[in-house]
Amino acid sequence: MPVHTSSFAILGAGLMGRLLAVELARQGHTVEIFDAGGPAAEHSAATVAAAMLAPLAESAITEPMVVRMGQHALGRWPQLLAALSQPVFFQQQGTLIVWHRQDAPEAQRLRRQLEATHAALPDLPRLQPLDAVGLAQVEPALAHRFQQGLYLPGEGQLDNRQLLAALAAEMESLQVRCHWQTPREATEFAPGQAGQPDWLLDCRGLGARTDWAALRGVRGEVLRVHAPEVTLQRPTRLVHPRYPIYIAPKEDHLFVIGATEIESDDRSPASVRSTLELLSAAYAVHTGFAEARIVEVATQCRPTLPDNLPAIRQPRPRVLEVNGLYRHGFMISPALLDVTMEILNTGQSQLSKKWDLAVSLDATDPCSA
Asked: Pairing relation of β-strands 254-258 and 311-316?
């Protein structure tokens, strides 16, 4: 493992690739990164995301390991953002869950699920049931709109596009050689040989399917709207039996609205039906969305492994693949960053064992012993 200055080639300049490039360059390594897109990360799933950091809320659909990694990230993101030269919107004012009266049974099922998560992971902040008065105090914009809710303290969010831009600027400042509009295959590199980088890190997401056949795409559709009449202070989730919507407020009354999760590699524009469902659900949360302006309707496919969990593997000496971030990319990427750096620096990772993260290293590589 590199205990001295080494050279790295990184494939994929999405969220994971940029985080690794910045960290390695800060440690004094020589880094170059290759991506099919440009600095705006237009081909990355990270561009089309709400960037919510909500481990307890997400526990309704994911494994405890992801929840634990998300809990780790809540402490790491402020550190990572503080080291960037450009500001990135970050907020840690919790998550609010609300529901209409007819969906109360579904809300009670969700509450039991979240309480079971807390019993298994007691370090998580405990959810707080809210009546109409408590809900109005936590989120005044929803006063008199809902009679009950759940408040999950400590959860957060950030602005994904500000972060991607700040990481691109940081790479330039750290003299990372960025090869934009330059897709490359892992087979084009022979790390460790003369004229080649010492290490190859593959963070291409779905772009790595030629090497990681188990990857599949899960389609997501997201709206961005500007709603000056809406003043939600924190990510809000609406319980619904068919499409559990989330609304994530960013700066200057910009809101990211999403819910859809479709088993498909299709990246065509969003359907009329799903767009109407998202908009009508947002209006049901707050009527101020009626006068909002639709800034963008975006679709993207998330890189997903069969178990919907992330993994790190070493298919050959001096090559690491980091993939499968699925719909939890921003919530778990700091944990994957820390695990990857542990592997590169020591040949193993205690953190991965703590979280039961799938890490498969090449035992024949003398640098991974």
From this structure: unpaired
What pLDDT does 368 receive?
43
Evaluate whether 249 touches 234 at the Cβ level (below 8 Å).
yes
Which residue(s) pair with 156 in the sheet? 53
Helix (H) or strand (E) run with residue 204 in it: none
The DSSP code sequence of 227-290 is -TT----S-EEE--SS--EEEEE-GGGEEEEE---BS----SPPPHHHHHHHHHHHHHH-GGGG
Q: How far apart are CA 167 and CA 175, in angstroms?
A: 12
On whether the CB atoms of residues 205 and 293 are closer than 8 A, the answer is no
- List every span in the chain annotated with CATH 3.50.50.60: 7-47+160-207+306-368
CATH topology of domain 7-47+160-207+306-368: FAD/NAD(P)-binding domain (3.50.50)
Does the domain at 95-153+216-304 match CATH 3.30.9.10? Answer given as yes
**Residues ≥6 apart with Cβ < 8 Å to 285:** 98, 142, 145, 236, 238, 245, 247
Please report which confidence band the pLDDT of residue 363 belongs to, taking 50, 70 and 90 as the band edges.
Answer: low
Please give the model's pTM, rounded to 2 decimal places.
0.95
Domain ranges in the chain with CATH number 3.30.9.10: 95-153+216-304
| Token code pair at residue 24 | 């390695």
Distance between CA atoms of residues 34 and 187, nearest Å: 14
Tens digits of per-residue pLDDT, 264-285? 888 899 989 889 999 999 999 9
Is residue 189 within 8 A of residue 9, CB to CB? The reply is yes
Each residue's pLDDT tens digit, 232-256: 999 999 998 777 799 999 999 999 9
Q: What is the percentage of the chain residues whose pLDDT exceeds 90?
A: 91
